[in-house]
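Board notes (copied after class):
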Amino acid sequence: MAWASGLALRAIEQPVTVEGSILSLSTTIEAKKVVEVASGCSGFDMAFVLAGVGVIMGLFFKRSWSKIVALVAAGVFLALVFNVPRIMLLVFAVVYWGKDSFEFWHGAIGGQIFASILLTAYYYLAMAMLRKSASSL
């Protein structure tokens, strides 16, 4: 996740270097801020949750195992992709906005905001996938 977030930060022209799970941003010539992407920020927790939601939705709507696997894969993919902008926001909070901003976005409220955005996106994607498979029956 640190590597992918580093690529995304470079894409928007941020002066970032990545060493393992450490992102370093140079805010001025003298100052460098360092952010560690800990294991809990990997996105795998939410990927596991969405994988479970995919299985439940597939079983509830009585879809084939191949469709259930597709729902699981879509959930895992979305969770990992949506985690990159989350890490970018947390890096901006640490580097530019201060500790209070980081605590907000890293805490319960900020986490719920990201989770609700991710779950909304997954719901629409899963329903589109389920509707497509229902029309092909």
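Comment from the instructor: The helical segments are 2-11, 44-60, 65-97, 99-106, 108-135. The CA atoms of residues 34 and 85 lie 17 Å apart.
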